[in-house]
Design a protein that fits this description.
Length: about 400
């Protein structure tokens, strides 16, 4: 759903003067060009569009390391005892990478005469230009402390690296004028774990992706599971779900599972008559799969928010996943979906069977979940809460 489909009144008190934080802002993203709709699931671009609808001029800055820069950062990690980076994420968390990326942002902002910089996705960059009067903001869906708890690679990081990431995150957060979080649970963590003053953090939510709402009928007695992961198949719970599905399907043979993943994920999915695997689907075909499914089973191990949850809800699909990160907040602690306490295939199998044991309940959850998503998640609302104090 696009912001144009749902445009509720911005959450700004009627009696408050509508004084914007800024009239011009630069958006940054270490994941790609922030004005490209493919970057970070389109969140920066959607925020930019929302801000521009409010009359705010938006520019994009993409700080990045070239091949030589990445090699230098990796070598620095080894020399300082933090170990060889095992992922691009770990590479970006190193002190040298942060400093170089922050320098790029400061230089670009100075060249353009920009005084306000909104970082999207992560604030791993120290604000090195505060003395010049530049104000830095962050729109994020997670924190390092939250990510570390369930990080699939955390056990492979050295103690020195983990301690450094914690210290560097503290430093980065200290330089921010204001922080905007997807969920309230992230706001609470920034306050309780990092000691950020509550008045400097606002939970603004998120909008949704391109899946259009579906208002047609479905047969919720037909147990059709859907799992969608464009990348990080294992981290998004794909392997865990396949194990759970095979257990549940042995008890209920009419269960089916449709998996959408990248081509490299195919080797992780067994050949089974009840499982259909797709990769590189056209958007229209993906939207059709949402409309045919009756339960999204997405036990993501460490995804902070999950755009796929919102895409399911607007498609009248209840959600089943783990009781962690943003999902409890999105499904109102189980009102619009099913929460499993532990990443255990047996527990997930039981939850799948329980969900389909009551088709009328599934149908009710689907309608109420769609109404909740349409009323609660809009990029215009996000932009309004960012723009107006």
């Amino acid at each position: 759903m696009t912001a144009a489909m749902v445009n509720p009144t911005l959450d700004v008190p009627a009696h408050s003067p509508r004084v914007r934080r800024f009239d011009r802002v630069a958006l940054t993203s270490v994941f790609g060009d922030p004005l490209n709709p493919r970057t970070w699931s389109g969140a920066p671009k959607n925020v930019a569009d929302g801000l521009e609808r409010l009359g705010i001029a938006v520019e994009g800055i993409h700080p990045h390391l070239g091949t030589a820069g990445k090699l230098q950062v990796a070598a620095g990690n080894i020399v300082t005892g933090r170990g060889r980076p095992i992922s691009g994420e770990q590479l970006l968390r190193s002190e040298l990478a942060r400093r170089r990326l922050a320098t790029q942002v400061a230089h670009a902002a100075a060249q353009r005469g920009v005084r306000h910089v909104l970082h999207t996705g992560t604030m791993d960059l120290p604000a090195i230009d505060l003395a010049r009067g530049v104000k830095h903001y962050l729109y994020c869906d997670h924190s390092w402390a939250l990510a570390r708890e369930h990080h699939v690679e955390a056990a492979r990081y050295s103690r020195r690296a983990l301690d450094a990431y914690e210290r560097l995150e503290q430093q980065s957060l200290a330089g921010l004028e204001h922080i905007f979080t997807f969920g309230a649970y992230v706001r609470d963590n920034l306050i309780n774990h990092y000691g950020v003053p509550p008045e400097r953090i606002t939970a603004v939510g998120s909008g949704m992706g391109r899946i259009a709402p579906y208002f047609g009928t479905k047969d919720y007695a037909r147990p059709a599971l859907l799992f969608v992961a464009k990348h990080y198949f294992r981290a998004k719970g794909g392997v865990l779900l396949v194990d759970a599905f095979l257990r549940a399907q042995a008890m209920r043979p009419d269960l089916t599972l449709t998996i959408v993943g990248d081509a490299s994920s195919r080797q992780l999915v067994p050949r089974h008559p009840g499982i259909t695997f797709h990769s590189q689907l056209p958007w229209e075909d993906l939207q059709r799969l949402y409309r045919e499914a009756t339960l999204l089973a997405q036990p993501m191990l460490n995804d902070p928010w999950g755009q796929v949850y919102l895409e399911a809800l607007v498609s009248r699909i209840p959600v089943l996943g783990l009781r962690r990160h943003g999902l409890p907040e999105i499904v109102a602690d189980g009102r619009y979906g099913f929460l499993v306490d532990h990443a255990d295939p047996g527990l997930l199998a039981d939850a799948i069977l329980e969900a389909f044991a009551h088709p009328d309940r599934l149908a009710r959850m689907a309608v109420e979940g769609q109404q909740h998503a349409l009323a609660s998640y809009s990029w215009d609302v996000v932009a309004g809460k960012i723009a107006f104090p």
